[in-house]
Every structure is written in structure tokens, then in C-alpha cells.
Write a structure and sequence with these properties.
Length: 239
């Protein structure tokens, strides 16, 4: 009889996959940036320069990457909760280790404050390296909670207000990343390739990050409250 694969074993395999995928992604990006002479993407002239076919090819590659991450999450999980959790774990580890591998391959980023082109769909997303990494940390923590609770009922669930706050935070974070692209989109696609942001709205991003983390804080508060109740019950009934 085949023994079921335990959640932590599946978590480790998903993590191994995400790390390997992060290296593949970093290597491809290193090849492209060396070829384009854009190891540091934050250039004063044409930061997204390249042949016309490159941008749609990169957009399709990004879409394919999302499909690959979603597929491994689907295969690793048994329920919607587990599948969403493993997807978040894979995404967060992949996004973090991408930068870990990019440093020895290219010498960039030199600091967490360095600007990067984070995504191209539907317009270029810009932000310092620390911003996507901070979101990736939330994804790994939240995803781990989801997938480890797949095989047992949840004692605590984030309440609707926490999910609402998280959704609003996600929208705000997306706006911060895409603000410069959205401001120039009406001027034409060529302007998007020339866009070079000069200031990151970190106060708004910090608010977005705190809102996105609300489900985790809500779970932590519920567990802390429950532990206090159990402690009081044990004192009231020592036998």
C-alpha cells in the first residue's frame, strides 16, 4: 500500500521546484540583459530597449511562468485550499530566489533599493527589489499555513474584513507598481518603453503591504485569544 505524501514533504518538493525554476528564470534574464546591455534595467535612455518582437515574447514568457507555478500548485494540493497554498509558496520562493541567483550571475542587484522591471502585463511594473520580496514573504507564510492545514479542519479562518483589506491592499500595491506605466499609456506603447520612474511611493506601498497581511494578523489574533481562553479554562478547572 502506498503511503500518502505528507504535507511537509510536498512543501519541500514544491520549494525545490521553485528554487530550480528561479535559477532558470535568472539565467534567462541574465542572457537577455547582457545581450541588450541592460544588466541594470534602470537606464536613463530607453530602459526597456530591444527589438519589436521582444516585448510580446517576454509577456508570453511571463504568462507561461504563471501557468507553470499554478500547475505545480494544482498537482501538489488535493483541495482548493491546498492548491492555492502551494501556488503561493511556489510563487514566493521563486520570486525571492530569482534575485538570489541573479546577483552572482550578473552582479545585480547591488542593493535592495535598486529599481527593477517587475512585470510587463499589462504595462511595465517598476519598483525597488525589496518591494516584491516583501510581498513574496507574505505569500510563503500564508501559503504554508493553507497547505499545512489541507488535511485537517481549520480551527480559525480569516474573517471577511481581513480578506477585504487584503484585496484592497493588493489593488493598491498593483497601482504603486504600475503608476508610471498607467500615466504614460495614453501617449502610446513607445512611451511605455521609455518610462523611467523617479520615485517609489513607499508610504502607499507600506499601507498596501499591511492591508495584504491582514489575514495573517487576524489568524494570529484569533489563536492568541484562543490560547488565553484555554489558559483561563485550565486555571478555573485544574482537574
Amino acid at each position: 500500500m502506498t503511503m500518502p505524501v505528507r504535507p511537509w514533504q510536498r512543501w519541500r518538493m514544491v520549494a525545490f521546484y521553485a528554487v530550480a525554476m528561479a535559477y532558470a528564470e535568472a539565467a534567462v534574464v541574465a542572457y537577455l540583459r547582457v545581450w541588450l546591455d541592460r544588466v541594470d534595467p534602470y537606464q536613463p535612455i530607453q530602459p526597456l530597449a530591444g527589438p519589436a518582437w521582444l516585448e510580446p515574447a517576454e509577456m508570453l514568457r511571463e504568462g507561461a511562468t504563471m501557468v507553470m507555478l499554478a500547475t505545480v500548485g494544482w498537482l501538489a494540493g488535493y483541495t482548493w485550499r491546498g492548491r492555492a497554498g502551494y501556488f503561493l509558496v511556489a510563487f514566493g520562493i521563486w520570486d525571492t530566489f530569482y534575485y538570489v541567483f541573479l546577483v552572482p550571475l550578473t552582479g545585480w542587484p547591488r542593493a535592495l533599493q535598486d529599481w527593477d522591471v517587475l512585470f510587463l502585463i499589462p504595462v511595465p511594473w517598476w519598483g525597488p527589489v525589496w518591494s516584491p520580496v516583501s510581498i513574496a514573504v507574505l505569500m510563503v507564510i500564508g501559503g504554508t499555513i493553507l497547505c499545512q492545514a489541507e488535511d485537517r479542519p481549520l480551527l480559525h479562518r480569516p474573517r471577511p474584513f481581513a480578506w477585504t483589506g487584503s484585496g484592497l491592499g493588493t489593488i493598491l500595491a498593483l497601482y504603486v507598481f504600475m503608476a508610471d506605466g498607467l500615466q504614460t499609456v495614453r501617449l502610446g506603447e513607445s512611451t511605455l518603453t521609455m518610462a523611467r520612474p523617479t520615485e517609489f511611493n513607499w508610504p502607499l506601498f507600506l499601507l498596501a503591504w499591511l492591508l495584504m497581511s491582514m489575514p495573517l494578523w487576524d489568524l494570529a489574533s484569533q489563536r492568541l485569544f484562543r490560547s488565553h481562553i484555554d489558559a483561563l479554562d485550565s486555571l478555573a478547572d485544574p482537574g
